[in-house]
Structures are given as structure tokens and as C-alpha cells.
Write a structure and sequence with these properties.
With about 230 residues, the protein is of the alpha/beta class. About 25% of the residues lie in helices and about 30% in strands. It has 6 helices and 13 strands.
């Protein structure tokens, strides 16, 4: 198990934005044995990922890059990325989102609270990162908070850098699982379900293009689990 604050691992420092990680509130009960292809509590599903393959293909021949992982500190992700010669910074963004705002999406509407949250969790220098593993954090946000978060992500990545984000493709889903992602290889990862929640909003391809309209390009891959993997180029 990793220590609470992991400062240096192999060739690159690992930074966690919030020190100790608060407890994530439990999910509301959902009476579904399966949600979007994963049973409740099902762990360690190994799957191929075209989005992950694309993300690493863009940095394959480079070294010394700075990458941000919003899924929290993971031994597998730290090992894989630092073995490629890059630095990794980690934040458990979804956990701190619910710790800050609770379960009610209406709590995410206050501009002052939004600014405080982003200054606490994404307080990085402009153009600091060469890529961000966003995973599935963004569909749990109200429109004002989501817009502000995407704007902040735009600021902290360098031009021509890439983001990898996951969104559920079922636009009518009343509840969706949220996951932990552990990198096994450039095109393979382990997906573990952390819980099930009501999404703040769901997107089709056009909606995602509008959300990332300031970025240079948006590319989609649809998986068998009804997850839309999205590569966004700054």
C-alpha cells in the first residue's frame, strides 16, 4: 500500500493535491443487479482501451513530461508512467468533489464555492502539464462547475497536449457507475467499480464537442461497456 504522501517514485515526483483523502459519501441505493455491463461491486475487469492507446501514442517518443492523474494515487499508474520517464501528479478529484459539495448537485452552483474548489484541487501553473488522465470525473458536475473545470484544464495544459476522459454513452441513464482505472499497458487497463451515482448530466458527441470547443480537436471511441472514451487535444 502506498504511503499517505508519496513524494518520489523512480524517476519522477508524485504530488497529491489534497494530502489525506476524505471519505467519499456512499452511493444512494440503486436496485439494479447490473449497470452498463458491470455488476454492482464487480472489480478488476481487464479491458483494452483505444483511448489509452491514443493518449500514450502521442507521448511515446518523448521523456521528462509532466502528467496529471485525476483518479488518485495508484501504484500501477505511478509505476507505468514513471517507467516511461515521465513525472506524475495525482489528485483524487472525484472523491474531493463529493467531500466539498456532497450528493446534491445544486450545491455546485455557487460561484464562490466553485472558485474555492478549483483553487484547492486544480491550483497548478498555466501550461504546467503535457497531458491529463481525467477518467470519468467530469459527468458528475453541474454545468457551471463543469464549465469552470474544463476552462481550468485548458489553462494548465500546454498547447498540443492531450486529455483522456470517459463519459457514459447512455443519455437516458438514471444512475451510472463510477470507476477506478489502473494502467497495465499502453492499451490495457484494469477497471474497478467504486460505486453508483446519479449523473449530474450526460452527453452525446455533439454535446462533448461544445464542452471542449476551445480545444483543437475531440476524438471519440465507444466501448462495449457503453463508455465513450474521448481524446481531447489542446
Amino acid at each position: 500500500m502506498l504511503p499517505e504522501k508519496l513524494r518520489t517514485f523512480l524517476r519522477g515526483p508524485v504530488h497529491q493535491g489534497n494530502g489525506s483523502v476524505p471519505h467519499l459519501p456512499s452511493s444512494p441505493p440503486v436496485r439494479r443487479p447490473h449497470v452498463n455491463g458491470f455488476s454492482s461491486g464487480e472489480l478488476n475487469q481487464v479491458r483494452q482501451s483505444r483511448g489509452l492507446e491514443q493518449f500514450f501514442s502521442y507521448i511515446r517518443d518523448q521523456a521528462g513530461l509532466s502528467l496529471l492523474d485525476l483518479g488518485g494515487i495508484s501504484q500501477e499508474n505511478v509505476s507505468f508512467i514513471t517507467n516511461l520517464g515521465h513525472r506524475i501528479y495525482s489528485e483524487d478529484f472525484l472523491r474531493t468533489l463529493y467531500d466539498s459539495f456532497g450528493d446534491d448537485v445544486n450545491n455546485q452552483l455557487n460561484p464562490g464555492q466553485i472558485e474555492h474548489f478549483l483553487n484547492t484541487n486544480l491550483m497548478h501553473h498555466d501550461e504546467q502539464f503535457d497531458g491529463v488522465l481525467v477518467w470519468d470525473a467530469l459527468e458528475h458536475m453541474s454545468p457551471p462547475l463543469l464549465t469552470a473545470t474544463v476552462e481550468r484544464l485548458y489553462r494548465i495544459v500546454r498547447p498540443k497536449s492531450y486529455l483522456l476522459a470517459f463519459f457514459h454513452a447512455d443519455e437516458k441513464a438514471q444512475a451510472v457507475p463510477y470507476y477506478g482505472f489502473r494502467i497495465l499497458d499502453c492499451n490495457q487497463m484494469t477497471v474497478s467499480q467504486r460505486g453508483v451515482r446519479q449523473p449530474a448530466q450526460l452527453f452525446n458527441n455533439r454535446g462533448l464537442e461544445k464542452l471542449f470547443h476551445k480545444f483543437e480537436s475531440v476524438k471519440f471511441f465507444l466501448t462495449r461497456e457503453h463508455l465513450r472514451e474521448v481524446i481531447i487535444k489542446r
